[in-house]
Design a protein that fits this description.
Blueprint: H1 3-20, H2 25-34, H3 39-47, H4 66-78, H5 84-99, H6 102-113, E1 119-123, E2 139-143, E3 146-154, E4 164-170, E5 184-190, H7 191-194, E6 199-203, E7 213-223, E8 227-228, H8 234-270, E9 272-273, E10 276-277, H9 282-310, H10 316-341, H11 352-360, H12 369-380
Parallel strand pairs: 1-4
Antiparallel strand pairs: 2-3, 3-7, 4-5, 5-8, 6-7, 9-10
Length: 387
């Protein structure tokens, strides 16, 4: 990284950190207790322009890269917050930016950048197909100037708090295509009018406050004008945006990891047992030190992946590896911190148990560690395809 980039990232961290300090741990604790969405926090970040980081200046955004966007999200988590309410708008928007028509971009991107519209929901996963996207059952059948959509999605986070949803559905039945990746299309669904008119959203309670839902489509009419790109090419559009998602999630895990390390170090210094700080004991000190090393190593992988992405170079392996090692590092740091705190690690007032639950998610979502290892095994190491 150049000196100017380091300075930019430092200034960016400081500016985002200043906003985050206005939303202390008690803010996130209360939201967690009520399973509430951080409306005020999201609104503040939007007004400051941070959620428009990846939108080009021509459309009212900042025109920054994935590296800068990842710094923003990392700082939110490192400050004790949860960037899950923000990250989706950054990477979902990329599908519209890269594959939408000029008219679609002119119509939606400035309004997303300005906060008039929220695009934070991505309708991909289904209850019977999981990660095997090519087998999804939701169908969009063309009827004149619109499509009729029927089906069901699950684990669709922020659907209740989003104006728009990016939806992937089959436009050609699986049995009618030559390759299973064909026949999928991407649509922009206006939830403001669709809910109650073909769309039903049902919240799902989970172990962390993630605002996730099931979404049901019952003869929903979507205008042809709301299709993103060409019909049947949706799988390619989906894959195209996943590297950015992996990098941004890796950054959040790095932020979590640093939050945990800072908490564990301070507690180990302050907690006195047997007339000495527990941090003097190598049984406490060494696990914290190892967790720190792993978080810092994960950060380097995140930086490498982001630099490749922003340079327009292939980065599938690096993005996946960054997500894997960062998720592992943050989870290790979470466990070390709970162990350091002992019983107090389970007390809500210390926030460790909240962040513990939040960072555990990234062993599973948005892609599980096993699927990343499968990708690395096949596409990097050249091992036989396992499925």
């Amino acid at each position: 990284m150049t000196v100017s980039n380091v300075e930019l990232y430092r200034d960016l961290r400081n500016a985002v950190g200043e906003i985050c300090r206005r939303f202390p741990n008690s803010y996130w604790r209360e939201l967690d207790a009520d399973l509430a969405y951080p409306d005020e926090f999201v609104r503040t970040l939007t007004e400051a322009g941070y959620l428009a980081a990846l939108i080009p200046e021509a459309y009212g955004g900042s025109g920054l890269g994935v590296m800068e966007a990842s710094v923003i999200l990392e700082e939110i988590n490192r400050s004790g917050g949860n960037a899950a309410a923000c990250h989706a708008q950054m990477y979902i928007m990329g599908t519209l930016l890269r594959h939408g028509s000029d008219e679609q971009k002119r119509h939606y991107l400035p309004r997303i950048a300005g906060g008039e519209l929220r695009l934070q929901a991505f309708g991909v996963t289904e209850p019977t197909t999981g990660t095997d996207t090519t087998q999804l059952k939701t169908m969009a059948v063309r009827d004149g100037d619109h499509y009729v959509v029927n089906g069901q999605k699950v684990w669709i986070s922020r659907a209740e708090h989003s104006d728009l949803m990016l939806l992937i559905a089959r436009t050609t039945p699986l049995e009618a295509v030559k390759k299973k990746t064909e026949g999928l299309s991407v649509f922009l669904v206006d939830l403001r009018t669709a809910v109650g008119n073909g769309v039903t959203i049902r919240p799902l309670r989970t172990m962390m406050n993630h605002a996730t839902t099931e979404v049901f489509f019952d003869n929903l009419k979507v205008p042809v004008a709301n299709r993103i790109g060409e019909e049947g090419h949706g799988f390619r559009y989906l894959i195209d945006g996943l590297n950015a998602e992996r990098i941004l999630i890796a950054a959040e895990c790095v932020g979590d990891g640093r939050w945990f390390i800072e908490r564990a170090v301070k507690y180990a210094q302050d907690r006195i047992v047997f007339n000495r700080p527990i941090g003097k004991n190598q049984g406490i000190q060494f696990p914290i030190a190892r967790a720190h090393v792993n978080v810092e190593a994960a950060d380097l992988m995140r930086i490498r992946a982001a630099e490749l992405f922003d340079a327009g170079r292939p980065c599938g392996a690096e993005a996946n590896m960054a997500k894997l090692v960062a998720a592992d590092a943050s989870w290790e740091a979470a466990n070390v911190t709970v162990q350091t705190y002992g019983g107090f690690g389970f007390a809500e007032d210390y926030d460790v148990e909240r962040k513990f639950r939040e960072t555990r998610l990234y062993q599973v979502a948005p892609i599980s560690t096993n699927l990343i290892l499968s990708y690395i095994g096949e596409h990097v190491l050249g091992l036989p395809r396992s499925f």
